[in-house]
Amino acid sequence: MSALDAYVGDGIANGRFIGVQAYASVHGQVIVDTGWGVDGRNTPLMPGDLMALYCASKPVLAVAVASLVASGDLDLRESVGAAVGRTCELSSHVAKLSVYELLSHRTGLENLTGVLMGLHTPEERSRTVCFARPSSEYSAGRRAYSEYAGWHLLSMIVEEVTGLSAVAFVGTLGQRDGVSMPSGLFLAMSQEEFCGNRDRVRINLVYGSGGKRRPLLMEQSQRICTELNPSFGGYASMRSLGQFYEELLQRRRHNDEFGRVLAAFTTCDGPAAYDPSLDRVCSFGLGFMTDLSSHYYGNGLSGVSFGHSGNVGALLGCADPATGLVATIAMLGTRSAETAVYHHRGELMQKILEEARLLS
Length: 360
Hints:
This protein is an alpha+beta fold. It has helices at residues 3-13, 58-71, 80-84, 92-95, 99-103, 114-118, 122-130, 149-162, 166-170, 173-177, 191-197, 222-226, 238-251, 257-265, 337-359, and strands at residues 19-26, 29-37, 51-52, 185-186, 205-207, 213-215, 235-236, 273-275, 280-284, 289-290, 306-310, 315-320, 325-332. It has 15 helices and 13 strands.
């Protein structure tokens, strides 16, 4: 039994989580691709099962924006008003924000509650986003990872510039730039895809008052699976999310305009700084978390590592250009965001690094 098997098995036996799905590779050679335990409906986890990605899907849309920047169809300095103001009514504050500020979490917009926004119709949600108010806590120009509106605005910009839905444009990235979306990764499912994959969607378990456990049934609903939610939507198996990061590692090495833009997006955008929303000193690129040790991914990744987490830190994806490592992890049924972020994900990453060292 490997150290990873032992750690996950002990965590399940002692109630630290109910299930884990993980994938890892080194220079494209797979070293981990498995599931342990069960989901919120007590269904055994398999490697190809689909998980709700939440904020871990943000890099998919960021790569779409990088494609438009590389082709010259979009400028990072362009304002939201210039990009979509002809077809969307915007508040004056939202209109003057730049694409760069959206990608780098520097908009200073109010923190819209994601669960509440998920109950809105797409039309209600768009109007709320277009008229999002300045935050009373975070000023424009200062990074604060608290914004819901920014990624919705980015998807609107992508659709206005390309004339395609954000989902359809993401599907063209393989032909445009050589970043193909793996078959098990969905920014949003079509009705046909939902019908074909509904039995593969696994759901989380949340803890209510008094420690009562409740399955998060909304994760299997047709509306949630098929409705575009660029701020924290999308579904993938950890295998498919890992294959996406493998594509990024390969593509950012190319010495063409898209490769250079992608490398810039996945590199630290300035020195690490205190983020008042996350309450830690950490680093970001454009649409990616960077220098992942600053995000509690453990101490074994290099300073050039990049990725993103989601589901209050219980799901993560990452790549390390220094070693060729790609790793993706989904933990189900963790008791709190704090234990997921500050303990479990660093320990799981350490065990995967041990697997990688055994391979070498």
